[in-house]
Amino acid sequence: MQVKLNVDQFNKRLSKVVQSWSNASNDSDYSSVADVGALFLSAGDPAGEDEPIRKGTAFQTWLLGYEFPSTFMLFQKDKLYILCSASKAKILAQIAGPNSHVPIEILAQARPKDPPTDALQRFLQAYTSHQRIGALTKEAHTGKLIDDWTAALNAADSKPEIVDMAPAVSSFMAVKDEEELKCHKTAANLTSTLLAHHVVVKLETILDREAQISHEMLASQIEARLGYGEGDNAKGPDMKVWSKGKGLTDVDWTSTEFCYTPIIQSQSSSTGFDLRPSAESTSDNMAHKGVFLLALGMRYKGYCANLGRSFIVDPSKEQEAIYALLLSLQAEILTKLTDGAVARDVYNHALSFVREKKPELEKHFVKNIGHVTGMEFRDSTYLLSAKNTRQLKRDMVLNLALGFQDLEEDGKKYALHLVDTVHVTGDDKAVCLTTGVKSIKDTMFFLNQEPEDNVKASKPAKKVRTTKQGANGNVSPVKNKTAGGKVLRNKTRGSAHEEQVQSAIARIAEHQRDLHERLQQEGLARFSEGGGGVGGKEGKGWKRFQSYKGEAALPKEVENLRVLVDRKAQTVILPMHGFAVPFHINTIKNVSKNDEGEFTYLRVNFQTPGQLAGKKEDTPFEDPDATFIRSITYRSPDGHRFDSISKQITDLKKEVNKREQQKKEMADVIEQDVLQEVKGRRPLRLPEVFVRPALDGKRLPGEVEIHQNGIRYQSPVSSQKIDVLFSNVKHLFFQPCEHELLVIVHVHLKAPIMIGKKKAHDVQFYREASDVQFDETGNRKRKYRYGDEDEIELEQQERKRRQMLNKEFKQFAEKIAEAATASTGDTLEPDIPFRELSFEGVPFRTNVRLQPTTECLVYLSDPPFLVVTLADIEIASLERVQFGLKQFDMVLIFKDFTKTPLHINSIPSAQLDDVKNWLDSVDIPLAEGPVNLNWGPIMKTINEDPYDFFQNGGWSFLGGAPGDEVRTIHFIVRIALLTLEINRAMPRLTQIPSPSLRLSLKRRRAPKAAKLKANMAILMPVKMKAVALTSMRIAKVTTGTSSSGRPPNPTRSEQRRVLVMSLKIQIAPRRKRLHQRLTGNPLPMGKPSAGDDFRLLTTISYICILP
Question: What is the dihedral of CA 524, 528, 532, 538, to 10 degrees?
């Protein structure tokens, strides 16, 4: 594919170079090239992958958009010379147009087999015509072109004086344009997402488990989030991490890379703490206490972003104070990074700030606090140091690196740093592009939660981070979350007191308000134009069906010009005007046959646009405005032949539809890689287990083996086995046999695999807890015992047997997790269901006990299994929540709007508070309403334009956020008026509407009513549905029908009466609060009159801007 250069961008940047060069005598930033006649930019063979990007390469890429090795450029104020190979000359010819700022002459060298050209000599002639030339003197290149150039230059009669132009080149690229800033922001977003959603979670797991892992290994695992491997074994970016970032849906992953290998340091690092960007992660195992330094840098389309963080386990008061000083220092320096600020003054201000707050730390302060970054990670020309007199300009991007080194605590040296990528916005303070995990509560880990007086009396508790990402990817407010007596989230030293002050209801309400606001903001960002969001998967695409490649491929039977069904080609051949015309079976809707007198009529109906055919209504067409044949009819006295043809067409249609359905079902099934068996030792085994889904044949127990890259279930029948690779494991569960008949190790897959002839998303290994071989009918001991001793002994043996089973299966699950983590680099932990949080419900057809885990909601006891990842849930809607009902329903809407929402019905109302507390504890927004919603049309409408959905309030129509009574009444009024429109448009209402709001109407006579009905079912909020039902009943009684069957046009007074009657139903219980809010006056004492109600409704009408 031809490389396309951005010509407009090149001309704009070339113009900037020439103009800045021409005014160099008046601008100190370009003084190094003020008196040179030309600028020489050379490039030899490509540098190695481990080498940092050179300034010359960055300058070339900045101009052209791509790196062109073995290419010379000679800039003159009136002309640009380019020396390159013939293939590069074809690409660079795009910029040599008439719109270029200066004339461009491209000198192409000859190919190896072609006769030589004078391109090099002509370039040398232009080069030697100048007395002084600016070049990057500190860069050395290699390659054939470099060797030829050196030889030609040595043979030249005169050589120009060389001046280092590096400071000027830095100034050319220092100020970023809009496109460059966009790349910087994307790189910063990638870096922040990786830190918050992977690195910190990984570090927390290591510290919590006290895992033995080296700094170098952790750095390589972080680096693998962008993909690893080559060829067929290559793995792409880990979207489980990147999907949690905002606005990363349209990232070009081929243009994304790390600026350097992540730097991890702890007190066990053999090299000590090093704050330089050139530091490396050592091969020593990480410590599990003390200070941890982390540095990450990512590059997007060549532009860099960098951040650094410090984490402390059990910090001392002094360490907390020093880190707090870093935070306040960064906030202070951001106010000084403005347009025109001098680098030296910024550093000196930082030093004086440290001297004022903590004078003893001045000697430990770093020698510089950052530098300009761009395509070149570290531009030393704009170093924020005590000696640099360069001025900062608006739209520069800096790497602000604050830190203290050679600090000492308990005889051990340590360092602290805080690094962020910042944007100089102008006169206002600079803005941090990299965000997250910066505050004290985010970076301080406390092993001991008890007050200091009780430290000796209590055993140190296991540490968990102070804040952690919620199950759906949100950062939840700090709170203590427990499940089954196990602490899932930790709390800081002050949060315990805050929780005691707040009641549970107030805390949930406040937390849900935050979650709904964040959900709305994330929805706008995800689906906005800037965020690159789209409404899930694209709609159905038009597909061309080809029956035959040519006329010669038609079967010979067509010569008879009779209707023919060709099953092999899936085609029906129809005679039309003396021609045999083939129609693919997918173009045919159906076929009908009827007898009239002596003849039999065969009618073939085709797929055409505009048919209200249910699921086929949205079938796409290449040109919907073309002329279509809707049907064609044949007549024949041979009824038996038409019977046969009709049956053949119908059977072929069913066969094709069945095949397409099977193909659609198997579309997501993957073919796994080959399992790499363990060599040199026996694999770890779990014997005597059964598998689900079951294999063909007799039900016999097999064994599970752990291999290098996966697990294998081996059936006693040697030919039957199931392989599951670690790379395809999404969740791993261990369910003990407490209160259960089975002990289970359950694997939930990322993509389904084929087991036998069926696809499976889950593979389960289990063993029955009761020993069927144990004789409970009696034994020798029984005749000597006449009490309950034997019963007690049997119960003890049963408990002991269950404990042994739990221990055996749990240990095997942990070994699977360890092997998977070592193989893939992703942390995999066996998740255990919390039975204490379980609740009953009907996710399928039977009532089951659903159990939450740390990351999922599961039912594992019997197929069909249910595994719902909490991070995939957008919002939970609780329906049929009414006083007096014994059960309610829960609908889980997924972040992927194309997935059908999951309905869990018939949950006991007694467990409503437990379900709400659990949903709130895992940071899932929830809403509740009195009736069920028709989610099919709702999701269809959302998928049509998700951005418009969030612009119009998003999920607020569910009523989940704290209610606004005025908005509630506004919805009531809208629905009441909508009801009147329905009654006008509909010819007849034959029955009272059911709670599902299905109206009995004739589509052909009332298309407008059908449209209004659909809109109402989609837009109606949960709380208002019952109101609409009541108002529609009132409207039916009020409007009536005329003798012609059509409803009369209701008068204005009738409309008002219907509106008042429907609104009074909802206003009655809220009269006092609404009257106070809408009128500003308290409600008069005594029974309200009709006039009071009407005045209140009139006020509501004006507030809601009624027509």
Answer: 90
